[in-house]
Amino acid sequence: MTEYLTNYRKYILKCLENEGCDFGQLLEYHTEKLHQFQHERFIHLIVMVLFALCTVITILAIALSEKLMLIPLAVLLLVLLVPYIKHYFFLENTVQLLYKDYDAIYKKVHGFSQEDLK
């Protein structure tokens, strides 16, 4: 997903530079893609939160029950949680950049955007 999102953003930026582009059609396409990326981001948020809860519960179980055999599970969950958080934040930040790209496309189609209201 990281590579796909990165390549998609490069594609949108190239389209924005190309004055011969059909920005109306690009706006429709980008809107559909934004919905897909928002869904992906939401699913990753749910999984990340559940994964973090499992990690916290495992650490609490170790602290309260003093069962040392749970330590490898806690370490495994932490090792997997860190890259998952990193990936989620990549999704979050990239989708926010895509919102700005949406505004730029919208301005090319309709002649105004949110930025003009400031």
From TrEMBL:
Top-level lineage group: Bacteria
Transmembrane segments: 42-64, 70-91
Keyword Membrane carried by entry: yes
Keyword terms, alphabetized: Membrane, Transmembrane, Transmembrane helix
Transmembrane in keyword set: yes
The protein's name in its UniProt record: Uncharacterized protein
Source species: Ruminococcus albus 8
